[in-house]
Amino acid sequence: MKKPIMTTVATLSTALLFSPATALAQQGAVAQWHAHAQTLVAAFTGRGNAAQAYTMALIQVAVYDAAVAVRGSEPHLKRAHEPFIADFVAPAGADLNAAIATAAFSVGYERVNSNPAARANYQSAYAAYLAAIPDGQAKNRGIAVGEAAARAVLAARSNDNFFNAAVHANSAADRGVWQAVSTATPYATAGANDYAMAFTMPLTASSPDARRIKSPPRLAGGRYRRDFDETRISGSLAGSTRTPAMTNVVQFWTESGFTLWSRNVRDIVTARGLNEFEAARALAAFSVATGDAMLACFESKYAHQFWRPWQAIQRADPADLAWTPAVRANHPEYPAGHGCYAGSATKALELLFGDFAVTLTSTGAQVAGWPVVASATFDSLDEINDDNANARVWGGLHWRTTMERSSRWSARIARNALCGGFGLGCDKKRFEPDDD
Question: How does pLDDT run across 343-361, given as a tens digit for each residue?
Answer without folding.
Answer: 999 999 999 999 999 999 9
